[in-house]
Amino acid sequence: PGKPRPGCAPPAASTVPTPATAAPSSSSSSPPQAPPATLPPPAVFKAACNMSATKAVYSFDKTLVLGFLAGALIGIGGLLSSVVSGSSPGLAQANPGLASFVKGAIGLPAGLSMVILTGGELFTGNVFIMISGLLSGRVTATDLSKNWFWSFLGNFAGSVFVAGMAFLAATTASEALTAAVTKAAVSKVSAPFVTLFARGVLCNWLVCLAVWMAMASSSVAGKILSVFVPISTFVTLGFEHSVANMFLITQGIFAGADISIKQFLLGNMVPVTLGNVAGSAIFVAAAYWWAYGKNS
Predict the structure, then answer these.
(1) Strand partners, 38
(2) Is 186 exposed, middle or buried (0-12, 13-18, 19+ CB in 10 A)?
(3) For residue 171, what are the CA distances in angstroms to 58, 87, 114, 194?
(4) How far is CA 170 from each of CA 69, 78, 166, 167, 282, rounded to the nearest angstrom?
(5) Which tens digits make up the pLDDT trace of 140-156?
(6) For the chain, what is the total number of helices (H) and then of strands (E)?
(7) In whole angstroms, what is the distance from residue 189 CA to residue 245 CA?
(8) Which of 28-32, 91-95, 109-113, 146-150 has the lowest mean pLDDT?
(9) Fewest C-beta atoms under 10 Å: which of 35, 60, 248, 292?
(10) Which of 120, 114, 145 is nearest to 131 (CA)?
(11) Which residues are CB-neighbours of 173 under 8 A, at least 6 positions away?
(12) Where do runs of H (alpha helix) occur along 95-219?
């Protein structure tokens, strides 16, 4: 008794754990993994391509409304920049370099931060997103064209709306501010085509790097800082952003600047928009597709 019979193996221990001995599942014992603080560059490019596919299925009215809100927020940033810089003529005379930096640091970085954190449809950022998706085969040329058209139209409507509201609110009604915003608007339609195109290229190269860097960060603070560095740089250096100009030139017209619609469109919007597209398409979308997406 107690000995196994010849030819019989002793009973194997059960491999099914009892409730008392069962190991807890990893899902119940391990806390959820936090997302990485930053994405590496190849992952950012992949995220941009995924975003292009998401934007491609938006209805036209969703893109238009989000475009309107993005244009309005950029306009509010432009208004803040105009008021701060236009109210500081003494600083501009005593220290023009510092005055340029103050103008760049206050206003448009806030506007783009609000656009990114609320999911706005900004044409200039969409150039990078949609061309990345097109080069990677995630979207079609038709998807790209629809997104660009409705976001550009929405941006224009939102920018003009804020310019009109600021005029009704008499935000720049003082003599100093009226002179400043009209002078700024006239200067934007007076530069040569090539100059405006080049400024547009450099501008949207930086703007789309701001979008890229914000996508790389998982925190609100990181996204805001990512926006601040490139945007304050482009404004300080005097580069040209088509959506910001939709507001700034309209603001000047409302304040009394002698600018015709033809001058507005052909003297600024066309060269700047073409430059914005070229800068983003070549130096951000195509360059990083070549580096991170071409062979993936």
Answers:
(1) 217
(2) middle
(3) 35, 12, 21, 33
(4) 22, 15, 6, 5, 41
(5) 999 999 999 999 999 99
(6) 15, 0
(7) 10
(8) 28-32
(9) 35
(10) 145
(11) none
(12) 96-105, 108-118, 123-135, 141-168, 175-188, 193-216
List the one residue out of 141, 181, 233, 119 whose CA is nearest residue 241. 233
Check whether 164 has a pLDDT greater than 90.
yes
pLDDT (tens digit, 9 = 90+) per residue, 223-278?
Answer: 999 999 999 999 999 999 999 999 999 999 999 999 999 999 999 999 999 999 99
The structure tokens listed for 241 are 């952003």
For the record, the structure tokens of 164 come out as: 């009109």
* 26 Cβ neighbours under 8 A, 6+ residues apart: none
Tokens 């629809």, residue?
146
Which tokens sit at 270?
Answer: 């066309």
Tokens of 203: 């501008």
Calpha distance 208→124 (Å, rounded): 7
Answer for the pair 217, 211: CB distance below 8 angstroms, yes or no.
no
Q: Please give the single-letter amino acid code of residue 150.
A: W
Which pair of tokens denotes residue 118? 């609320």
Retrieve residue 119's tokens. Answer: 């999911």
Distance CA 93, CA 89 (A): 6
> What span, in angstroms and rounded, lies between the C-alpha atoms of 202 and 28?
51
219/54 Cα distance (integer angstroms): 22
Burial class (CB in 10 A: 0-12, 13-18, 19+), 97: exposed
